Amino acid sequence: MAFFGRKSYKTLTELVAGCQRQEPRAQRAFYERYQERMLGVCVRYARTVAEAEDIFQEAFLKVFTHINDITKPESADSWVKSVVVRTAINYYHRTTLPQEHLTSYESSHESLASDEHLHILAGYNLEVLLGLLARLPDLYRLVVNLYLIEGYSHAEIALLLTIPEATVRSRFSRGRQLLLTDIEQHGIQRHELLG
């Protein structure tokens, strides 16, 4: 039973406007709207769930700090996701990159055609694929996530990570190969997916 009446936000525009006025109910509803989905995004970039939760919390501090920057409330979904992805990348630069030691990479006995990986990955259970992605070394996981899951181009990833595009392509290639090798080791052969 609510004593003070409950303000309902029927549209995203109303919800964003409520957050811009710093209404606690609007902020709570906004947070809850994105919590599950954006935490899932954070998990893809983090090594642990606790790390993902830290990234998520940091991202939402930025979201609420800069909520007044939203001029088109209907684009809030993509804006929030962009803030979360950029926060994950910044977290990576701050914490993971200094510690990162690339694992040795052994080339596969068989090379794949450039777009064949998309067909293979599309035929794989998403939950299992995300679990395999989480096992990649950080540098590769970040690039593979941005390219395959988020849909960024190599040039866009290079800008986000402030590294040369050739490095992005190299990390993607190595990460993709490690991922495909891991997929094969889990019992899925290429001919089963391509058949």
Return the CATH topology of the largest domain.
Rna Polymerase Sigma Factor, Chain: A
Number of strands: 0
Largest sheet descriptor: none
- The CATH class of the largest domain is Mainly Alpha
Domain RNA polymerase sigma factor 70 region 4 type: 127-179
Keywords: Sigma factor, Transcription, Transcription regulation
Protein name: RNA polymerase sigma factor
GO molecular function: DNA binding; sigma factor activity
For the structure shown, list the relevant keywords.
Arc Repressor Mutant, subunit A; 195 residues; disordered N terminus; mainly alpha; Rna Polymerase Sigma Factor, Chain: A
Describe this structure in words.
The chain has ten helices and no strands. The chain has helices at 12-20, 24-45, 49-65, 76-96, 116-122, 126-134, 138-149, 154-161, 165-185, 190-194. With 195 residues, the chain is mostly helical. The protein folds into two domains: 12-99, RNA polymerase sigma factor, region 2, helix turn helix motif (Rna Polymerase Sigma Factor, Chain: A, Orthogonal Bundle); 116-194, Arc Repressor Mutant, subunit A, CATH 1.10.10. The termini are far apart. The chain is elongated and about 55 Å long.
Describe the SSE topology.
Layout lengths: L11 H9 L3 H22 L3 H17 L10 H21 L19 H7 L3 H9 L3 H12 L4 H8 L3 H21 L4 H5 L1
Helix pairs in contact: 1-2, 2-3, 2-4, 3-4, 7-9, 8-9
Task: Give me a quick take on this structure.
The chain has 195 residues and is mainly alpha-helical. The chain has helices at 12-20, 24-45, 49-65, 76-96, 116-122, 126-134, 138-149, 154-161, 165-185, 190-194. It has two domains: 12-99, Rna Polymerase Sigma Factor, Chain: A; 116-194, Winged helix-like DNA-binding domain superfamily/Winged helix DNA-binding domain (Arc Repressor Mutant, subunit A, Orthogonal Bundle), CATH 1.10.10.10.
